[in-house]
Specification:
Layout lengths: L29 H17 L14 H10 L6 H14 L5 H8 L4 H14 L1 H4 L2 E8 L8 E9 L3 H6 L2 H19 L4 E5 L6 E5 L22 H5 L23
């Protein structure tokens, strides 16, 4: 009897995550628009009062994405992160981080509650998501235990709108991880998937110590990236130039 033939890789092309036919339609209600305005206004303040350049209101999705994109202009990767850190910090009145740590000490209930809160109150930013069960090792324990402290984002609305891996890493992933881990005392790891625009969040999992230890360090440009085209790459999907300041390169960051 002949051995079975070796497996053959699926030759069919992967779906384009930016295909307009695959784009989800959102109907933003008053609460979602209020969040957009709140975050957008804080970003505007960090930019010295700048407003969306596309003529949209801060209380709109297009205006929010536009004002957040302005943070990238002329700033290195780290400067972008610091600006977003300023936005996140300004959203909380003085003393709230300390109170948050008291209300949500690092424990299974705290991690699970914050995972659930994320799916409910941040759908306006990332789109639909669900709570997932993960294995997390709490401080003082040598055993990872199952808990519902994960969040699976089906297809990130913000990443889809920005179309930029560097914008995802600098403006969302790294500042959010740092904010929860260092300021609020709840470790958080975010792992975006740049093939299908999904993202896995795990509350209770400490992020990599440096960006060089993170898979996002080598994120490639999307095929539709205008910056990559301007650099003359053609169809080549090299490392995202928006992350080049981590590698000490002279390309714009």
């Amino acid at each position: 009897m002949l051995p079975p033939p070796p497996p053959v890789d699926d030759p069919s092309p992967r779906p384009d995550p930016f295909d307009p036919a695959e784009r989800r339609t959102y109907s933003d209600g008053p609460l979602a628009l209020a969040f957009m305005y709140l975050f957008g206004r804080k970003m505007s303040q960090q930019l010295g009062g700048a407003m969306p350049t596309n003529g949209e209101s801060l209380a709109s999705w297009a205006g929010f994405v536009n004002i957040s994109a302005q943070i990238m202009l002329g700033r290195s990767s780290r400067q972008q992160q610091e600006t977003v850190a300023g936005v996140l910090g300004s959203l909380m009145p003085p003393g709230i981080p300390e109170r948050f740590r008291a209300w949500f000490p690092l424990s299974k209930p705290s991690l699970e509650i914050n995972a659930w809160i994320t799916t409910v109150f941040f759908a306006w930013l990332v789109g639909p998501s669900v709570v997932t069960e993960e294995r997390v090792r709490l401080p003082g324990s040598d055993v990872a235990v199952p808990m519902r402290s994960g969040v699976k984002i089906e297809k990130c609305r913000y990443l889809e709108a920005s179309g930029c891996a560097g914008m995802c890493v600098n403006m969302c992933k790294l500042p959010t991880q740092r904010f929860f881990t260092e300021d609020l005392g709840l470790p958080l790891t975010m792992t975006p998937n740049f093939e299908d625009l999904s993202c896995q969040m795990v509350f209770g999992a400490p992020p990599p110590p440096t960006i060089a230890d993170d898979v996002a360090h080598d994120a490639s440009c999307f095929s539709s990236c205008s910056t990559a085209a301007a650099l003359g790459r053609g169809g080549e999907r090299g490392p995202c130039p928006k992350l080049d300041s981590y590698r000490g390169k002279a390309a714009p960051a």
